[in-house]
Design brief:
heterodimer, A: about 400 residues, mainly alpha, B: about 200 residues, disordered N terminus, Large ribosomal subunit protein mL44 (chain A)
Chain lengths: ~400, ~200
Amino acid sequence: MKRLQLQRWSSSVLSPRARTGGRLQQHLYYSLRRQSTASPALQVESEQLVDESSLNSSIPSSHIRQQPKYILPSPPVEAARESAKLAALHARLYLPSRLPLETLARALVDPSADSNSNFNNESLATLGHDLLTYYTSEHLLCTYPRLPLTVIFAAMYAYVGPKTLATMTREWGVEMAAVPGGEVDPGLLQFQRVAPGTDLDAEPVSNTTRPNDSRMSWRKSMTSRIVYDNEFGDPSKAPVEPSQQPTPGAQSTQGVTAEQASATFVRAVMGSIYLHAGRPAAKRFFEQHFLSRHLNISDLFNFSQPARDLSRLCARENFEPPVAKIISETGRKSRHPVFVVGIYSGQDKLGEGAGASLLEARSRAAVAALKGWYLYSPLNVRVPSSMEDEGAAAWKPVHVDLGEVIV
Amino acid sequence: MATSLVVPKRPFLALPFLLPSCDSVAMELRRHQSSYRRTKQRLRVRPDASFGVSSTQFQDHIVHNPPSSAPSVFHTPVKFLPPDDARRSLHTDPLFKHTNSEVLPTVFKTSTEKKYHLNKSDIEEIRKLRLSDPMTWSRWKLAKRFECSPMFIAMVCEASPQKKEIQKQVLEAVQSRWGPKRRMAREDRQLRKESWGRDE
């Protein structure tokens, strides 16, 4: 071996013709070196392979063992222990030690890279997606029991939507493989990319769970989105019958975007933590990585007629009708006046807003009052999943009231 | 290139930078000379009374003097708290009460109190009038006659298609005379109005 290494170093001084070894093997060796995505363990193997074969032209036994790696769609299971990237990712995310590296490697293989469901992350991602949406929705509904449905959908999207998950993948330092394959380092996210120039919004979403989805002009009400659509209020794909599913042998040429693949990866990590380390670890992971992200819910509102909504709210809750009163003002006859208007219901002030005109100030005050209503949060919020803890206190019902103002 | 000498209208002595650089003259004519010591002295103002130690309190305490700003929307008003909430009893302190809410002037001069004084025959008459002569009986005129809001007239009846067409043409004729500046200013105003609801 030592002699062989020496010969490799001396190759720079030797002329190309003086080198032993077949041209084909050298080509193979150099092209492997250039591929940055190939795992380093494999590179060392192939270096030895080239050097050994340069001495005795018979094919060594390791060559036969390594050969199937090139025809595998995703890295073999035993490659997970040799990947430095994978171990670094495991340590960086502070994942529980009960979660093995092999499962983390499987979470990095998208169904578009490996259609075999025993080796891709589809099942893990399904479990993780259900956990993520469940934990997020119970947190939102218990913390802010009066939120309107549109705001809940927007907040769900902001917490566990695909864009957020793709951002998290980048923040975790997960890199993407150019092309999936058996020789790729298992620490890279592997998926079949969409062909360049493909228009992703070309065809409308079809085959959804919503009835009459082919009629584009039909109005989609907010309440029907709870029943038919997914947790973000978007149309969801109908499940495909097992008999109609494409066979695993058939190579599906349709790729996925990097955003979709990243989202599937994060969901699969969540699912694998739940499977290997249990529910408390999954809950802790969710709180540390998802709930800790700052989301200002008061920015998600958009009112078209706040004054009308507020008067409807006061009529519904049997409060005195809201009256806008001027708290203070300055420069009424100047170019830049400022009015501070408060909205009062009887003696109590509901909201306060400042604006350059009386109408603007009143409108902003009504918006502030409506946000004060919607953003009510009870003290000592508990979520239903906290009852699964050991020795949890008796459950007290969460606050439920009429909530949203419907005009 | 023609150069013109600008003769200042003010007396010459009031513009010290035009004078030859003579230190004594310049020092006298300037209002003050900024120096480190003088600037520092001028900034040395007596702090607000709320920052000082009150005479009745001799222990360490926290000074809470926030800058004036809009109240946070996450502080739910007492009226919006459910009856079983613990914060309701905390805010019954008379210090938190705004006792002067009656003396504040209202934004609108006229009362927006609804009267509910129109009956079925009145509504029939509104519909008949608007159908018979839509040019005379516009929404505003009907509202004035029946002492209700134009919004209520719009809820009760609808203009005939001919009237809508005429009104559309009138609007187009008016808008065709707008120049780019007025058009842009109106669009901007509409965009600003939409931003009120988003609280921007």
